[in-house]
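ok new one. same drill as before - structure tokens go in, u give me an amino acid for every spot. 93 of them this time. try not to just spam alanines like last time pls lmao
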């Protein structure tokens, strides 16, 4: 390995302090985490098991909007991010 003149010096970790998780203020508690889905469970079962917090809350809002659009026979859409398309999981070209 050649030396890089732009290399940063190693970080001095001697002054880093830690604190137990139990003493920190958190947005959520472990009791609010979603459980692992059961093998063979339905999507509704999975959906109902999601907590109403953080990204699960955002996911619920998306699912509700798609269901509402489908129920009202309104056109819906989907969008893939760039990474999904680069990995070949988007619609065929």
């Amino acid at each position: 390995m050649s030396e890089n003149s732009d290399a940063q010096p190693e970080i001095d970790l001697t002054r880093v302090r830690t604190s137990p998780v139990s003493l920190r203020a958190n947005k959520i508690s472990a009791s609010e985490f979603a459980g692992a889905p059961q093998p063979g469970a339905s999507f509704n079962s999975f959906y109902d098991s999601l907590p109403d917090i953080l990204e699960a809350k955002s996911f619920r809002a998306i699912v509700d909007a798609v269901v509402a659009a489908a129920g009202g026979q309104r056109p819906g859409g989907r969008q893939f991010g760039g990474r999904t398309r680069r990995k070949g999981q988007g619609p065929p070209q």
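The longest helix spans residues 54-71. and btw Helices lie at 43-49, 54-71, 82-86.
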